[in-house]
Amino acid sequence: MLNKFSGWDDTIIALATPPGIGAIGVIRLSGSRSFEIINSLFPSKDLQKQPSHTLHIGFIKEDNNELDEVVVSLFKNPKSYTGEDVVEISCHGSPYVQQQVLRACINKGGRLAKPGEFTQRAFLNGKLDLTQAEAVADLIASNTSASQKTALHNIRGGFSEVLKKLREELIQFSALIELELDFSQEDVEFADKIKFYQLIEEAQKITINLLQSFQLGNVIKNGISVAIIGQPNVGKSTLLNVLLNEDRAIVSEIAGTTRDTIEEVININEILFRLIDTAGIREHTADVIEGIGVERSLEKMRSADIILYLFDVNAYTKNDLLKMEDDLKQQQIRYLLVGNKTDVLNKEKLSEKFGGIDCMFIAARQKEGINELKEKLFHSMVNQQALSENTIITNSRHYAALLEVERSLADIKAGLDNKLSGDLLTPDIHRCLHYISEITGDISNETILDYVFSKFCIGK
Question: What is the C-alpha separation between 407 and 84, in angstroms, rounded?
Answer without folding.
Answer: 39
